[in-house]
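Board notes (copied after class):
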Amino acid sequence: MSKHIQSYSSIDNTIGKMNDIELNETEWYFRDFMFRNYNTGVLQFDMEHIAGNMVKTYLRYRNAEPGHIASILRVVLENLISCKFLERRDKFVRIRDGISRLQCGKCYYICYLGNLEERLCLRCKSNELRTFPKKS
């Protein structure tokens, strides 16, 4: 199983306003985006269109500068490729081996983990993860 890089501070980033909180938050939304699409059979994404799709999908990004979102996503995508959550094929990315939505039994954080990733909460590192209940 691959390990997820939880702190972005180890990544040399030269983008001015970017910080760990913003990177982690964007990663969470991107993982949510991938999970929702994976469940509808969409397995591959053009890297150039991900930022625009996230702006359309999430209210959180409606007023965000598209170029800034794209620059954050470049860092997030590289991290997720390096930890084996995603694989790159030309200008496309895809989930390597499925994705699950889990909830931490300790801090109740919702985690979206690839099937090849270590089963640890992305927030508190607990291994007390449960399948997130589906809507009734």
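Comment from the instructor: The first strand starts at residue 44 and ends at 46. The first helix runs from residue 20 to 38.
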